[in-house]
Amino acid sequence: MKADSALPTVPIFGIRVSKVDMKATVSYLTDAVLRREPHQVITANPIMVMAALENPSYMEIMKSAELVVPDGTGVVWAAEYCREPVAERVAGFDLLHELLHQGESYHWRVYLLGSTPEVIRETASRLQTRYPGIVIAGYHDGFFGPDEDEQIVSAILEAKPDLLFVARGADSQEPWIAKYKSRLQIPVMMGVGGSFDVISGKSRRAPAAFQKLRAEWLYRLLKEPTRYKRMLALPKFAVKVMREKDKVTKEQ
User: Fold this and answer.
1) Where do the H-state alpha helices sit in the chain?
2) How do 135-140 and 9-12 pair as beta strands?
3) Would you tell me how many other CB atoms lie within 10 Å of the CB of residue 219?
4) For the chain, first and last CA: distance in Å?
5) CA-to-CA distance for 108 and 134, rounded, in angstroms?
6) Positive or negative CA dihedral for 132, 134, 135, 139?
7) What DSSP line would sit under 44-66, residue for residue?
8) Distance from C-alpha of 62 to C-alpha of 101, rounded to nearest angstrom
């Protein structure tokens, strides 16, 4: 599937979400790398959709992304509930690993940005060991302010990566990528949230049973009760989808 051919999508409150499965997503992004076509990839979940509905500038970022994949099970459910189902959930954590696996064949260069100095170092080390065919072209922790952006952008440009993974939280990683993507011109620029914490061993991903039940959100809430305020967006999203079923997938 070529990167210059549009993937089938379903609009969820105006945000066009890809309908294809993991295999087709990786194929599409592989072609994007080979063609050197810049793509901001957003791994959408209900919390992000609700944030976009409340914040026009965030909505614009979501709408302007070259690819939005259905990461959150709530997004998958909404598409199915509105009779516009997606092929499957495309989790950002899994997409990161699939891209790195694919990149071994091409010796893709990878830049990692985000988390703490300790976590990013361990993440870089573990990924290089697990995927020896890729090149970890550089990494930097996520503790920098706007006044250091130029320095970070310059370092990334010098590294010439094919893939850029940014782990700074959805409220900052997506806006940061959107702000600099036209300068960076990297084929795949993707926010990956807490993925580096899991890869480095600092935290655990939800067990398979929770994943199978589409309840990774519940596992995260049980592990981090302080997340409850953010999690309130989940029932709000579900109620909004049910109340506005006929409007959810309409163009906006």
Assistant:
1) 22-35, 46-54, 56-64, 73-81, 92-106, 117-130, 149-159, 170-184, 195-200, 208-212, 216-223, 228-231, 233-243, 245-248
2) unpaired
3) 17
4) 27
5) 5
6) negative
7) E-HHHHHHHHH-HHHHHHHHH-S
8) 27
Q: How far is CA 100 from CA 144, 164, 193, in A?
A: 26, 11, 17
Token output for 164 = 């850029």
* CA separation for the pair 103, 240 (Å, rounded): 39
Return d(Cα 158, Cα 243) in angstroms, integer: 50
Helix (H, G, I), strand (E, B) or coil at 24: helix
Residue type, 203: S
Q: E strand or H helix at 135, and its extent?
A: strand 135-140
Sheet with 109-114: strands ordered across? 67-70, 40-44, 188-191, 163-167, 109-114, 135-140
């700074």: which residue's tokens? 168
Beta bridge partners of 164: 111, 189
Compute mean pLDDT per 10 residues along the chain, 252 residues long, and list them. 70 97 98 97 96 96 97 94 96 97 98 96 98 98 95 98 93 95 98 94 67 57 56 84 93 70
Q: What is the DSSP string of 200-228?
A: HTSS-PPPHHHHHTT-HHHHHHHH-GGGH
Q: Which residues contact 56 (CB under 8 A, 6 or more apart)?
A: none
Residue type, 234: L
Per-residue model confidence (pLDDT) at position 202? 82
Q: Which structure tokens are listed for 20?
A: 């294809």
The count of residues in the chain is: 252
